[in-house]
Amino acid sequence: MRGLVVTAGAAVVGLLLTGCTDSGDQPAQQSAPPATTTVTVPTAPPTAAAAVLGPTGPSTAKPCQGTAIPVGTDPQPVIDAAPPATTFCFAKGVHRLTRAIQPRSGDTLAGGPGAVLSGAVRLTGWKRSGGAWVVRGALPAAYPLKGQCEDNKTKPCQLGEQVYVNGKHLTRVMSLSQLKPGTFFGDYQANALYLDDNPTGQLVEMSKTQTAIDKTADNVTVTGLTVEHFASRPQAGAVQAGRGWTVTANEVRWNHAVGIMVIEGDDAEVSRNTVADNGQLGIGQYKSAGVRITANLVTRNNTDGFWIADWESGGIKSTRSSGEVSGNDIIANRGIGMWSDIAEYDRRITGNRIRDNAADGIRYEISYQALIDQNVVEHNGFGTGRGSGGSLWDGGGINVNTSSGVQVRGNLVKDNRNALSIQSRTRGEGPRGTYVLRDVLVEGNQFVMTDATSTLGVVENKGSPTQPGAITFRRNSYTVSGSPADRFSYRGKTMSWSEWQQSGFDKDSVNS
């Protein structure tokens, strides 16, 4: 999370924790030693650089054959009347849900292009009110709020109801005086919703139902559906997947918080989905072992102003979990591309294309045993806002933060705000022992730093000095251009390439 520093290259004088803590109660165990596979200095980018994801979303789903659910029908009674392990086919059109669907064990919820599950209600009865338009009685009663917003004063991201005019997402403002075209204001105390734009003759909708599909049973399949406009609460998903679920070939878009959330969902698979424009996060994973998140397009998430630098906004975030994140396009999210945080273990982040995300491309934080391998990590970290800057404490294309047993191998890390940030902080105890920077191997990567301000290296706070031998750099390729020449950092000192090698790093690597 955020570190408090004096100036670049100066000693760290403190540490501010912002939400990532762990008091685990499991016995400690040793991290597995790094693999001994021989790697040479790379001369070509990884396969992922030339790979094309291909189609994702409902167009890639298989045709549905099963029990039909027509538009306008409450799906739950149809589901309840059928035996478990039934396939249900949602007809083409907009299915407006007023409550979450609760599948049974083995059920399949399927559709095809044009089958839409919507959590929105249509708003009618608008009246002129001064210079604005108002409708009354549509908002819910007040409810507990949570979540950290980029705007930490008025906190607009905490409220779940969003407004769409002809499908276009409006921006929430927090007072009537701020209202302007393209925005809305919800006065929850007076139960009044205001627009500046004239709603006459327009389709105006407000997201209201919180969840589309809930994890009420194991081994459920969700496929071929578009899931949109749900008022999901921060850290909760429009689709909440459980143990053994398969969520494939869907489009999950424009929901307030998380698009797809795997919760205590061991062995779930999330694949071939388009997960775009959700308010907080594209895909989340919590307390779920062996999950496979593969071949998804995860793009443009955090549309509702959650804290970009440090509160699980952006592409994918996983906590206290394990599994594989591979072959995904994680692009242009307003936050971190792929974030493993708090007691992750046996994590494999391989073959992804992670580009143009506002914060780190990949962050591996207070966790254990990871392989970050064969990814393309390009042009990340240029869009951070509150509480962020350009130092290695603020991250990089790849950020390894107080974790052990991490291998960073065979990646192309190109033109990020910083290339690689390895951080040693005081972070307390976890379920597999103290969170500590140890057994980190950086091998066979291509680092390209053409921006004159981009750096690479190790930073540490005063209470957690980097131990000798904790980090190994070997057989990497560097392309460093621009000035100044001192683009590496270790123990509070910026270094030239020769000084970096004299410190024991990258003695068999090349720099051009």
From TrEMBL:
Entry-linked InterPro entries: Beta_helix, PbH1, Pectin_lyas_fold, Pectin_lyase_fold/virulence
Gene3D superfamilies: Single-stranded right-handed beta-helix, Pectin lyase-like
Pfam short name (any one): Beta_helix
Right handed beta helix domain sequence ranges: 242-412
Record-given protein name: Right handed beta helix domain-containing protein
